Amino acid sequence: MVYEEVKKFYSEYGGKKCIIGYSLLGRAIFAMYVGNILGRQLIAAYAVHGREYITARLALKHIKLGLSPDWGGWIIPLVNPDGAAISQESAPLWKANARGVDLNCNFDALWGSGRKNTRVRGAENCIGDYPLSEPESKALARFTLKIMPSATFSFHTKGEEIYWEFEGRGDEKGAKILSQSTGYRAVKISGSAGGYKDWCLLRLNIPSYTIECGSDELTHPIKDIHFLKKCYNALKFFTERYGR
Q1: Is residue 83 scored above 70 in pLDDT?
Q2: Which residues, 6+ apart, have CB-to-CB distance to 12 below 8 Å?
């Protein structure tokens, strides 16, 4: 199980680390620090959706690769550990948390206005009872407010696209750097709301990016044989070039 993989990695990790909160079913949400504490800071979040748990393994790769000497930041490999367990154990296409709330619709950024949003709990698209109603999204938001990073990154699957804009806010320069690293298209999208990226842009006014890893031809959940090699160097490449 991917939760056990991340838990083991966390227990053996010799660097700065913490638990930012706990899931609905009591699983820890682990965070590990890499890079320079005196540099610009970032937060990178992975596996916000249960069926996208392969991105948690990408996070461990990013921890091992590190960042440029000018940056430091927190890697959060498994934001939705309950959803990942559901996907691995019983419902492969499950995106939501254990309460049936889609965490990437649960942030306070035009909450509930997305085209596919629903209040019906289930595998995807449920917005929850109110913004940050879920322990996982609340933990990520509180941690972000505590750190106040210079940029945030959310690694999802799939589609090989980079989303960087919300309600007229966003940093196209950073999106182009990520595009150079991954070969993915940097695009604007409409019809979605309530995501972590959206909240960081609208409420915190900091650059934020969603990277959709893996070809659209693949099926969820993406298997290890199709591991996300194009995203291996995304954070290190970004931190080496941003600000130049």
Answers
A1: yes
A2: none
